[in-house]
Specification:
95 residues, mainly alpha, 2 domains, 4 helices
Length: 95
């Protein structure tokens, strides 16, 4: 069950900003009873692995940006060695 779908359905039905487990359970039961839901689509193995790699690439890119920003502020030996390490690690794993 998609939480966004449950929330929108609850808003449409009672238009109240209050939230409670009782209301959520009632809305979910009604959606299931009426057949107003869809099965989740799980990604295939390839797409799941691609998603993991893209997240890893984003983290490495963010780290590299932070290190470069640190180098611009003050060029320290540890920052330079970290930058060199990140460059070799990224080069090895060309995403």
């Amino acid at each position: 069950m998609n939480p966004h779908h449950v929330n929108k359905t609850k808003e449409i039905e009672d238009n109240s900003p209050t939230k409670s487990d009782y209301k959520d359970a009632k809305v979910i039961a009604k959606l299931i009873r009426d057949g107003n839901y869809s099965e989740p689509k799980l990604p295939t193995k390839e797409f799941a692995e691609l998603r993991i790699l893209m997240n890893l690439r984003e983290k490495v890119s963010d780290s590299l940006t932070q290190v470069k920003a640190g180098l611009a502020i003050g060029s320290t030996a540890s920052s330079q060695s970290t930058l060199a390490y990140l460059r070799t690690g990224v080069a090895k794993h060309r995403f």
